[in-house]
Design goal:
This protein is α/β, with parallel strands linked by helices. It has two domains: about 1-190, 3-Layer(aba) Sandwich (Rossmann fold), CATH 3.40.50.1950; about 200-430, CoaB-like (Rossmann fold, 3-Layer(aba) Sandwich). Helix content is about 40%, strand content about 20%. The chain has 15 helices and 19 strands. The chain has helices at about 15-25, 45-50, 65-75, 85-95, 100-105, 120-125, 125-135, 160-175, 185-190, 225-235, 265-280, 320-335, 355-365, 395-400, 410-430, and strands at about 1-5, 30-35, 75-85, 110-115, 140, 145-150, 155-160, 200-205, 210, 215-220, 240-245, 260-265, 285, 295, 315-320, 340-345, 370-375, 385-390, 405-410. An eight-stranded mixed sheet has the order 12-11-8-13-16-17-18-19, with helices on both faces. A five-stranded parallel sheet has the order 2-1-3-4-5, with helices on both faces. The radius of gyration is 25 Å and the shape is elongated. It starts with a strand and ends in a 6-residue tail after the last helix. Pathway: Cofactor biosynthesis; coenzyme A biosynthesis; CoA from (R)-pantothenate: step 2/5; Cofactor biosynthesis; coenzyme A biosynthesis; CoA from (R)-pantothenate: step 3/5. It catalyses: (R)-4'-phosphopantothenate + L-cysteine + CTP = N-[(R)-4-phosphopantothenoyl]-L-cysteine + CMP + diphosphate + H(+); N-[(R)-4-phosphopantothenoyl]-L-cysteine + H(+) = (R)-4'-phosphopantetheine + CO2. Pfam families: DFP, Flavoprotein. Its cofactor is Mg(2+); FMN. Its EC number is 4.1.1.36, 6.3.2.5.
Length: about 425
């Protein structure tokens, strides 16, 4: 297939070099068309060396070939990665002020735009309108990834990993070729080369249910959505995932590629499952909402109202602290997850902000990362959107070179990708660092 790889002027242009290599390894002819601004980030010799083709940015280069028309006419697919806010705006307006935009205007091939920009630019009404218009014309605009951006800020706007773009390109080319390429082989390269490739990840999801009598129990409002999203994100990043599923409103991903599911109900069952699976894990994501207490006494018969009107008294006892126990067991035995990520659902109170409570919990639990969810009536539990802060322990801050919590708002899938990316980055850096737990 003949592919045009358009590269616009953003810092993420360096990732397009790896995408180019993946496309060339598939045997495609790839013409790279950078914008003049893109050449400020990656030079022309790099593009020419890997593509094996001449590269230019101007419509006045090779005028005898009329390249600004011929390139588009001969292409089967045009991929623009990264597609900056400026490039999307010019494509929407039909401008043709350089070789790339002229090619976009002249081609009738499939177009795939892969955005990369700061969160504020991605969410700006002008960009939102430009993306909607391009999609309305039948062009594909991928969703950006969520994670660390150029500066200290994070959020949606990060260029998806080259393996993920490559997987989508292969799907499109299979459609154009009229073949019915199955999803697994197409997505396999992304998983094999992903951030968590070869890693074993344990994810806990949902709530726990503590029986009081044969018909009643103590529980919570956890839907399991965030845990399932984490399992999917870890699997997409190449990990072998063991999902320990408590009580959930959503279906567990039974039979999903790269994911095995274990069912539990009580906090004690969850504790035992984590202890068993965690010893072999590289990463533990403790997203389950574990009941802090359980009835001290289980009543074999249903508790009934009495005629004297006296209210029953229910005595509670503490459930095991699974997160602290896992950290402690790792320290004592020298085995267990290299990175442990805790979750804190906090409402705050008159004296304490939820972020302060989460910082204290992170210090108390001893895990590497802690994800704060602000919860309450109508917040987070059962909702599709969420707002999280990813906090790092002091040692991890030094390893990652940052101290401020990572703030992410958006869908639970976006939050999951951010958590998995941060945890995977930490695993990768620990492998190259003398930092010890």
């Amino acid at each position: 297939m003949r592919i045009i790889l358009g590269v616009s002027g953003g810092i993420a242009a360096y990732k397009a070099v790896h995408l180019l290599r993946l496309l060339r390894e598939d045997g495609h002819q790839v013409d790279v068309v950078p914008t003049p601004a893109a050449e400020e980030f990656v030079g022309r010799p790099t593009w020419e060396a890997i593509s094996g083709r001449k590269v230019s940015t101007s419509i006045f280069s090779h005028v005898d070939e009329v390249r600004h028309v011929r390139l588009g006419q001969e292409a089967d697919l045009v991929v623009v990665a990264p597609a900056t806010a400026d490039l999307l705006a010019r494509a929407r307006a039909g401008l043709a002020d350089d070789l790339l935009t002229s090619t976009l205007l002249a081609t009738e091939a499939r177009l795939l735009f892969v955005p990369a920009m700061h969160t504020e630019m991605w969410r700006n009404p002008a960009t939102v309108d430009n993306v909607a218009t391009l999609r309305g014309r039948g062009h594909e605009v991928m969703e950006p990834a969520v994670g660390r951006l150029t500066g200290a800020d994070s959020g949606p706007g990060r260029l998806p990993e080259p393996e993920d773009i490559h997987a989508r390109v292969r799907e499109i080319l299979a459609e154009l070729d009229g073949t019915s390429a199955p999803a697994a082989p197409i997505s396999a390269p992304s998983a094999q080369n992903g951030l968590l490739a070869g890693r074993r990840v344990v994810v806990t999801a949902g709530g726990t249910r503590e029986p009081l009598d044969p018909v009643r129990y103590l529980g919570n409002r956890s839907s399991g959505k965030q845990g399932v999203a984490l399992a999917a994100a870890a699997a997409a990043a190449g990990a072998q995932v063991h999902l320990i599923a408590g009580i959930m409103e959503v279906a567990a991903p039974e039979g999903a590629a790269g994911i095995t599911v274990e069912r539990v109900e009580t906090a004690e069952e969850l504790h035992n499952a984590v202890a068993s699976a965690g010893d072999e894990a590289d990463l533990l994501l403790m997203a389950a909402a574990v009941a802090d207490f359980r009835p001290a006494d289980y009543t074999e018969a249903k508790i009934k109202k009495t005629e004297d009107g006296v209210d029953p008294v229910i005595h509670l006892q503490r459930n095991p602290d699974i997160l602290s126990a896992t950290v402690r067991r790792r320290a004592e035995r020298g085995t267990g997850p290299t990175v442990i990520v805790g979750f804190a659902a906090e409402t705050g109170d008159a004296a304490n902000d939820p972020l302060d409570l989460a910082q204290a919990k992170l210090l108390r639990k001893g895990c590497e990362l802690l994800v704060l969810n602000r919860v309450g009536e109508g917040l987070v539990f059962g909702q599709d959107d969420t707002e999280i802060h990813i906090l790092a322990s002091f040692g991890v801050q030094g390893l990652l070179g940052e101290a401020d919590p990572l703030h992410v708002t958006g869908s639970k899938q976006e939050a999951a990708r951010a958590v998995v990316e941060r945890a995977g980055e930490l695993l990768s850096r620990q492998a190259r660092s003398p930092y010890a737990l």
